Amino acid sequence: MSGGIESILPSWSESAIECRGVCMSYGKLNVLSNLALTVPQGHIYGLLGPSGCGKTTLLRCIVGRLRISKGRITVLGKPPAFPGHGVPGRMVGYMPQDLALYDEFTISDTFWFFGRIHGLTSKETESRISFLIEFLDLPEKSRLVRNLSGGQRRRVSLGAALLQNPQLLILDEPTVGVDPVLRSRIWHHLLEIVKNGQVSVIITTHYIEEARQANVVGLMRNGNLLAEAPPEKLMQQHGALTLESAFLELCQSSDQSASQLHMNAEGAEKELHQHSEDCDESFLILSGSINQEVTEEPKLRVDWNMWGKHIFPKWRNIAALMIKTFVRMKRMPGSLCFQFLLPVIQISLMCLCIGGEPKEIQVAVVNNETDGLFFSQSLLWHLDNSSVHQVFVNQSKAIAGVEDGQYWGIIGFGANFSKYLLLRIMEKQVTEQIVDGGSVHVWLDMTNQQIAFTLQLKLQEAFEGFIKDVLGIQSYLASLPVKFEVPIYGSKNPDFTTFIAPGAIVSITFFLAVGLTALSFVMERKQGLLDRCWVAGVSSLETMLAHLFSQLFTMAVQITLLLIFVFLVFKIPNEGSLVLIVILIFLQGVTGISMGLVLSSAIDDEQSANQASLGIFFPNLIISGIIWPIECIPYPLRYLSMALPQTYAAEALRCIMSRGWGLTHVMVWRGFAVTLAWNTFFLILATVILKIRR
Ligand SMILES: Nc1ncnc2c1ncn2[C@@H]1O[C@H](COP(=O)(O)OP(=O)(O)OP(=O)(O)O)[C@@H](O)[C@H]1O
């Protein structure tokens, strides 16, 4: 059997594809075992076999998308993904089984997209589009792919593979769902393009009989090639009238060989040898015999190039991918508005609902004062009416009201409140009874900390205002012996919104970027779009960069709207540099994108991507000191908090906005440094995972 298929098939000097001793498995599932296959240059090769036998897997190994564990593959003279090789790239036209088309594209957009990647000129693209539309009987080129029928989509997908007139066509079931007339036209076209010997085609099909038009057919079963020969020879050999019956016969004899091998390995080996000798003149190759020979061949596998086939990114590809993203955005205005407005909605809700002062707190007032001064009344006038709603009732109704949850507390005055209060202020020595009678008695429902704190604060403010009224310039006599001077940073009455806003801005930007990146990559991978672009010559680095650049545009709009709302609408104070604020938020967005890349490289379906994004969101929000100061976090967790991407970034933004600090302060540059470090880490991690999982 030396020389393999080349020695027995007529007049093909070179092979377009050569596979020798190829093994490939998904985890423990061995899909290709010791497989040998030769696609002669300038011929059509029909790869046949039952569902699940490994045809698609083999094609993906041939285009370099899957890594083989053993053996050798040569495509157009070099291993796939060899540096500088056009496979993947312009030399190969790949039509995957799962169509892999952008639903939001029109037919014309689809061809333009692949045309840009292959570096076709506008004129070339236009003329190919006109030809393909006519040849593949496609509807108007302005029709959206998502509105096409299954068969029409399949033809668009075939058109994308034919677009650049590649030297090698790899077509995974291009004729499924295509009517017999068009099927015959497609075969006719394939026969035409291979005529001059420059183009080779490997095609899989479930319609075994249509493969009779191929120059060679390979019959695959259980990851092995049972036979490889011109169809007529194969039928002749088995005395079969159809290719299907020849295939059945081959399967049966392969089963018999396998069971005999199982019963008596030595005997079976002899038999196989005899059988292969018998077949030597018959153009039939049993995979067992050919494979034994080639497993000894040196293994040549290129796996150093994690990015595909070129190390330096091509701007042409990045531009094509960015145009793709913008076209898709244009076609999905609802989704675009959602992306732009979501951060604004989130920050607005946060500013409106968190950190504000409670309003209309119902409080029962029990005023038993009977003397003529009515200081109690004067003090109640100073109580902020917008926050505290006073309801005058008697003692028993007040207690019952608090117990029923009707009031948040009771403010009580004794019968001699005014008299005793005056005595307390004026006299040097007073009894405890006078101090007690001159005090406002407050019973609070303390189950709601924020409301209870507000009531305490409002009563304190009311008392201060009242004392000023009563004592005028001598009011200091009744003040606390603690004086809060003008604050060094911030205002005397800080609000919680000012504290939470910087952290909220950072986490909204970060998680939106995580979610959008992870989802878009996972969806594209699932639909086979990433694979198809990769085979067309786009490297993973270019895909990442294009996503980053387009996402930066989205982020620019998001951040502009976010800051307009934060500073102009909600008037959150800012003492620092707007430039630093914008850069830090952008960097956090980029960290989010890189984390999204990590998730999408590790996760295969959108549900898991959503779960992962959500799963990270809440713990991160809680532990990063965004909602509550990190000083409240117990120690082991505080170390974890410090290591998270948002803790120091939120702190830095807070320092810029509230204290007006710049990069000279450690708390500010530390936020930038940690953000950049996380960026680098996530990008390296995504690259490593992509390399491992490729
Ligand atoms: N990503 C994957 N992970 C794990 N197993 C896989 C994966 N892709 C395919 N397989 C398995 O590998 C085997 C071969 O699949 P493959 O898609 O190559 O078959 P096929 O011959 O192309 O089938 P069909 O004609 O139905 O498309 C099948 O058992 C399939 O379940």
TrEMBL record:
Localization, UniProt: Membrane
Alphabetized SMART domains for the sequence: AAA
Span of domain ABC transmembrane type-2: 464-693
Keywords attached to this entry: ATP-binding, Membrane, Nucleotide-binding, Transmembrane, Transmembrane helix
Keyword Transmembrane helix: yes
Occurrences of domain ABC transporter (ranges): 17-247
GO molecular function list: ABC-type transporter activity; ATP binding; ATP hydrolysis activity
Superkingdom of origin organism: Eukaryota
UniProt xrefs under PROSITE patterns: ABC_TM2, ABC_TRANSPORTER_1, ABC_TRANSPORTER_2
Keyword tRNA-binding: no
GO cellular component, one term: ATP-binding cassette (ABC) transporter complex
Topology class, membrane: Multi-pass membrane protein
Membrane spanning stretches: 499-522, 552-572, 578-600, 612-630, 667-690
The name this protein goes by in its record: ABC transporter G family member 20 isoform X1
Taxonomic path: Eukaryota, Metazoa, Chordata, Craniata, Vertebrata
